[in-house]
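I have been asked to look over a protein record a colleague put together. Thanks in advance; the entry in question is below.
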Amino acid sequence: MPTTDPAAEFPLARGLPLLGHALDLARDPLATTCRIAREHGGAARFRAFSRECMAISDPGLARHILQQKVDNFPRSFHYRTSRPIIGYGLLTQEGDSWQRARRMMQPAFRSDPVREVATVTARCWTRTRDRWNDVAKRGDAIDARVDLTRLTLDGITAALCGIEPDLETADRFGALVREALLEVRRRNNAIVQLPAWFPGNRQSIVRRMSAAFEAFLGPVVDARMREPEGRDILSALVRARDGEGQPLTRQELLDQTKTLFGAGFETTATGLTWALCEVMDKPGLCDAIGEEARAAGLGSGVAAERNAEINAEIAGETLEKLGLARRVIEETLRLNPPVYTLGRVVAADDEYEGKRIRNGTTLLISIWGMHRGPAWGADAERFDPDRWLPEREPPRHAYMPFAAGRHTCIGMHFAQVEMRIALALICRDFRIQWAPGASRPPMRPQITAAANGPVMMTLERR
């Protein structure tokens, strides 16, 4: 039983009469949650209409919720409203169904399959590199967001499904995934949640998205169910069995694949885009990453013999030698975490450090605020990859770009490897810099904490 003094409450951030902070939350959930938590010492209660909420950026309280008392803090309504769009997968499941699926899927995301991601990413990079070679010859500027989105989509499609669609098909599917995620965000940020039967709830959009996902992914799932011996992740999921020897059904495979695309595609593209912004903001960093890549054995870039490069597998030892690229990615994900807030709900009264956490409260954990909080010192806002050197001992208790506890993103290592290899290859083959007159765009929370504007850069072949 809780031993909290009944009078001990977290601070209350007062908002507008009736509305509370509902309008602020709908307009900018990242800034609102981060500000409320910061102004009240890392955690505060607030109201959005009649909904009781808490904004949290205190690392200890976040760990309490996500790890120590995880059973008492299931995921919030935000995840449930996503089910009709991105499927009944790991991101939207709870309880026994989540536990069964996670146990069956986990082996597909361990070391050997994930190392394959490095090789797949390198192979997909050659297509992007060919386009960039032409751009460099012409001396044009490009919006890095566009090609990085294509590159990450190519990578996840190849690693997850074992296919490499043509450019037009990939762009069309990428637009579908993005549209679906925007609809998820619209629903989650809506001031009023409409019931499923209400005429204005955009069910026709949901049905169209579902049909489009089925048209693209359904044949791929069917093919893997007929021939499940491939090295891609979907093949591994088809071969998986639960404790009773039962496989995932076709619908489960389709839902999990939709969820993996939804959770992994936009977040990885956003993280890699911010990584390039950080590299271009720091003179000499691109050259240093490129030199490290060549020393690690990633080849000589454009001068490498193309077929040998495409077919070569990237060993785990090569990944370990990309220490600077890894540190740049880790620091990028600290300052620019694509997933900026985690939602949970309180199932039963609880307490933390003598203060009550009331049953039914919606908890909004600000990853963005935590990553820039007091645990990181006076220079928390400064980009410094060297804070991830072993001797520096960064405060990992205050770092969770992929969440924490049993709901840690199953694709965490997948995304880390993909971003590290992509960054190393880009810097190996090109010297990148801001286009004349261009600069780092501001961040705007959309599906992810994405750039609100083009990332215009020029390329120089090495």
Observations:
- The longest strand covers residues 43-48.
- Residues 250-281 form the longest helix (32 residues).
- The chain has two domains: 1-86+340-381, 87-339+401-461.
